[in-house]
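Researcher: Please translate sequence to structure tokens.
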Amino acid sequence: MILRGRYKNEAEVLRPYISVFVYSSRGKWLEYDFLVDSGADVTFLHYGSLDELAIDTSNLEVYDDIGGVGGKDVPYIKFSSKLQFISGEDVKIFEGEINVFLDPHATDVPLLGRDVLDQFVVLLNCRSGEVLLLDEKAKYTISEG
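Model: Translation complete:
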């Protein structure tokens, strides 16, 4: 499986994105454009995802043990869900906990972290505009020249 993303120009900065489907509490798959963030330990959704995915936060524990470029001690919750990657006829689904920021100013884009990225070979080539995630079946070679 080879997943193809793209670079988006955001305020004169090119950033790598890939489309991923997230399973909502309503039983539907919703498509999100995730920033491919190799510096993030785990995957996060933005605050607006709470409503979009119909996440009931009333019984979920609030955490504040993460930090990064955006600051530290930012509150978030973890909820059980699925991420679905689609490439042609191939589908790969990851089940587990996904994090959601509770601060609307933390980020306005979902972040695909290493908890998911480490399941792929990640190739980012800004010059050619390529964002590729390759699973264990995909092969690639690098040659000089």
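Researcher: Any highlights?
Model: The longest strand covers residues 76-87.
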